[in-house]
């Protein structure tokens, strides 16, 4: 396979990656300049949990704010079901749960995924240190992509 074909295939795979993040602690968003100190203070007092995703430019953006971690996680679960149901490769999904020092929450979400996607592989992992530093402790994400184990990469 030619290098150009490999790069094209990798780009096609990359385009299938999508995710939703829930941030529990707003301090790190404030420290990183993504949120003002006043916004972090008020958001913390009101138990606001931003829902984040990557935009088309690869930047993390907030698309909704929900009160309480429990409601935010429930919303992300619902959005995941809705979004993945529309995918042309939904029969070839691989799902991921990423967390920042919250294995219990990650395992609960994994159970949810196993219930709703019984034949799909699910990986649980911690965020990388860079992402965990930006998102803060107890952050959680559900992500998905096409399962490369189900692709013929020789074509």
Structural class: alpha+beta
What radius of gyration results from the CA coordinates? 17 Å
Pick out the low-confidence regions. none
What is the H-and-E element order? HEHHEEHEHEHE
Rounded to the nearest angstrom, the distance between the terminal CA atoms is 8 Å
Q: How many strands appear in the DSSP assignment?
A: 6
Shape: globular
Number of H/I helices = 6
- Estimate percent helicity: 40-55%
- Rounded mean pLDDT is 89
Strand order of the largest sheet: 3-2-1-6-4-5
CATH overall fold name: Hypothetical Protein Tm841, Chain: A,domain 3
Broad CATH class: Alpha Beta
Give the tally of structural domains.
Answer: 1
How would you characterize the largest beta sheet?
A: 6 strands, mixed
- Estimate what percentage of residues fall within beta strands: 25-35%
Based on the structure given, which CATH architecture is correct? 2-Layer Sandwich
Main attributes of the structure:
155 residues; alpha+beta; Hypothetical Protein Tm841, Chain: A,domain 3; 6-stranded mixed sheet; 6 strands; globular
Protein model, in words:
- The protein has 155 residues and is of the alpha+beta class.
- It has a single domain, classed as Hypothetical Protein Tm841, Chain: A,domain 3 (2-Layer Sandwich), CATH 3.30.1180.10.
- It contains six helices and six strands, in the order αβααββαβαβαβ.
- It has helices spanning 3-14, 27-31, 37-45, 69-85, 103-116, 129-135; strands at residues 18-22, 48-54, 60-67, 93-99, 122-126, 140-146.
- A six-stranded mixed β-sheet has the order 3-2-1-6-4-5.
- The protein is globular, with a radius of gyration of 17 Å.
- The chain starts with a helix and ends in a 9-residue tail after the last strand.
- The model has no long low-confidence stretch (mean pLDDT 89).
